[in-house]
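Late entry, NAI complex.
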Amino acid sequence: MKILFYDTKSYDRESFEKRIADYPELKIDYLKSELTPGTARLAAGYEAVCAFVSSDAGTKTMEELFHCGVRLLLMRCAGFNNVDIQKANEYGITVMRVPGYSPEAVAEHAMALALTANRKIHKAYVRVRENDFSLGGMLGFNFYQKTAGIVGTGKIGAAMARICHGFGMRVIAFDMYQNPELTFVEYVDLDKLLAESDLISLHCPLTDDTYHLIDKKNINKMKNGVILVNTSRGGLVKTEDLIAGIRERKFFAVGLDVYEEEKKNVFEDRSDEIMETSITARLLSFPNVVITSHQGFFTEEALSAISETTLSNARAFAAGQKSGNEVN
Ligand code: NAI
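Prediction complete; structure with ligand written out below:
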């Protein structure tokens, strides 16, 4: 089976090339271009395409892929909010993903963001390099014995809950389903979580229900001086309301690995560009906001798991079998 791999970065190729010899029935061609309605037609002659979080697998793209004869969309990530599943169903395109390739990778990054934003590591790094050893503006607070509120206790949320527990925090959580492994977690409703948490970390998927979950109304319910971390999806947070909340001094700090408007930025070097009017630039102007570029997943272990699972998804499809990672 021939697979066209979109948005290839050197680390993707390295990781897939390491394993492809074990899958002689699969052949991958790598493209640097992102999957969009415009580039989808390059998939003519391929049975499968492989895409990632910033790909546009919306209605138009699915239509093009279908006309090119593509029958399988391999998402090399967990989230699939950028895929038009209804169209995929209509066109008989199977969508497969890599669920839970390394929950700890993302959870550890969430805690890294929380600690960086709290203890001002981003500022300290620059200051000390300039031989400025002063501490003004660096004051943080202990996580020990504070309350961590985890929204969504699936694989990543559970890993984050365990990390927070390890820090000696009281851990509360909101989810429709209680994770029985998290015996140390107290499940509460969202309002209570917002009102009592010193650190709020978002780990639910982006759906119609969770879109702009963190808006003005819910920000107002938070404790003053809270730290908010989002490593899940940008659309969970209404950025304009977040910015207003930051201006009103609601947040002690904010750590974002994902944000609305990230699509154009993710994994691109735009350092020579003059940025257009942008909420990203506004967010970056605040001293208590730390942003990373969707790198929560980016560990060696996670990349290995992504390539291994994506290739075995493709193998299962090619053999007419189910891998269990089908989305539709
Ligand atoms: P999961 O499916 O294991 O867990 C999601 C949890 O959220 C489930 O327990 C579900 O019941 C809960 N949930 C759903 N709707 C909810 C709501 N309205 N309120 C509260 N909880 C709700 O997913 P996993 O693997 O833990 O991933 C979570 C998210 O992390 C993904 O959807 C993805 O958006 C994001 N992610 C980010 C990465 C990064 O690099 N920053 C990498 C991988 C995933």
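The two ends are 20 Å apart (CA to CA). Will revisit in the morning.
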